[in-house]
Amino acid sequence: MQSTLAKLSLCRTRALGGRTYQCDQCGELSEVYHSCGDRHCPQCSGRKRYDFAARAEQLILESVTYYQVVFTLPSDLSELALANRLEMADLLFTAAWKSLRKTIRVQQDYDPASMMVLHTWNQRIEPHWHVHALVPGGGPNLSGNRWKQAESPEGAGNSDGHYLVDAISLRESFRRRALSHLKRLRRQGKLKLGGKFAHLQDDAQWEAFCEKLASTEWVSFIQPPPTPSCSADQVVRYLSRYLTGGPISDSRIVAADAEEVTFLAREGKLTGGERRQVPVTLATTEFIRRWCNHIQPDQLTKTRYFGGWSSPKRTAYLARCQQLLEQAERDSSDDGLCPTNDRLSDDQTADAELPRCPYCDEPALRLIRESAKPSWSDVLNHLDPRCPKWYAALDFQEHCRYLMETHGVDYEDWYLETQVESAMKPAPPPPPPIQLYFPGMYPALDFLIESF
């Protein structure tokens, strides 16, 4: 966590090196520093959003309706997840996919697919573990070689024409599978129960806790496309706002200083929150603590693919879907998404990617100097002047603790002893001269070589 904060503090600063450009129009110099590339960095989320859209567009097929399905853990489990991040992430992903897969196969009779992304926060940056799933509203029929579109049952009262599965049965299946997974984690001793949850180590208390969760109405909802008729590209761009980015964007922060941070948050208990935003003021230390609660370990994969979109099946699944769609005799404008012409032309895309001068706003920047991005092991060393002072102090303390626990020696004593030994140690002898050999130089040696 501390190394993540140190990386974020150095993002796009001189410490990471970069490129120097000169404008051929006005002659001014511009510095463009390297980004940290950390997945938690709010400054680097733009590139992540672009990468996500590029990956998602490879899964999108025209004339197919796509839904966003959100599965949320209750507040108690969201707090328990802070000490069991890897285990609770697997629980959430597994329970969400298995319930979604089973419900779609039973109610719609087609082979489903999904891409899910983990979010661990709400508008107030509190623990709120949930996954956003992108799900196609159709797929290869399980009982025949044809395309099957999701249809609402008779008497469902669906008026907008969009229907995936029954939300209530999906919610109940998700709760049942998540609780089963949770109990299995405790039986296997993989669940850390301490602090606020230490009482759950008692079997009776644990059973009461599970009964309370079983009687609670869990939150999961199905969201259709944002407009009745939109292109696949528009669906991806719409979902990318939810599937990428960090706990809070800069646009929501109203004021910040050493004492307090004020930001905007949606107010209300409705799904997704109401539109009205209210200011929320926190002490700066509390704001940082809440933000740090959403730094995930490197081993945790936040984006996962399931079903037909999983890596082993993706190519064959998409090819089969495309084949069945082409065979289907129906009007795509009635059942799917109509195409639009909002793509940028190649010339427009090329112009948009040209670097522009921050002084005269002309695309006339010329690269004149470049420095490579240093390794984090060098930058985050407490002896490196580029290392943030607060992190250098922590790294120095960790180094002292390691020396004391491993060698039983104080850092100052170790450093002084090392310097004295280095000064007293004689310089190593120079290496022997390299003896060159040429045929004919030594006749006896030539005879021996020829003998072998």
Explain what this protein looks like in three dimensions:
With 452 residues, the protein is of the alpha+beta class. Among the domains are: 45-247 and 294-342, no CATH class; 250-292, no CATH class. The chain contains 15 helices and 13 strands. The strands form 4 sheets. A 5-stranded antiparallel β-sheet has the order 8-3-5-4-12, with helices on both faces. It starts with a helix and ends with a helix.
Which descriptors would you attach to this protein?
alpha+beta; 39% helix; single chain; 17% strand; 3-stranded antiparallel β-sheet; 452 residues; 15 helices; 5-stranded antiparallel β-sheet
Class per helix and strand makeup: alpha+beta
Average pLDDT works out at 82
Q: How big a fraction of the residues is strand?
A: 15-25%
Q: How many β strands by DSSP? A: 13
Number of H/I helices: 15
What can be said about the biggest beta sheet?
A: 5 strands, antiparallel
Rg calculated over all Cα atoms:
30 Å
Helix and strand string, N-terminal first?
Answer: HEEHEHHEEEEHHEHEEEHEHHHEHHHH
Low-confidence stretches: 330-352
Helical residues, percent: 25-40%
The N- and C-terminal alpha carbons lie at a distance of 64 Å
How are the elements arranged and paired?
Blueprint: H1 2-10, E1 18-23, E2 29-33, H2 45-57, E3 66-72, H3 75-80, H4 85-107, E4 113-121, E5 127-136, E6 138-140, E7 147-149, H5 167-187, H6 203-215, E8 219-223, H7 232-243, E9 253-256, E10 260-266, E11 277-283, H8 284-292, E12 303-307, H9 314-327, H10 332-335, H11 346-353, E13 365-370, H12 376-379, H13 389-407, H14 411-424, H15 443-451
Antiparallel strand pairs: 1-2, 1-13, 3-5, 3-8, 4-5, 4-12, 6-7, 9-10, 10-11
Helix pairs in contact: 2-7, 4-5
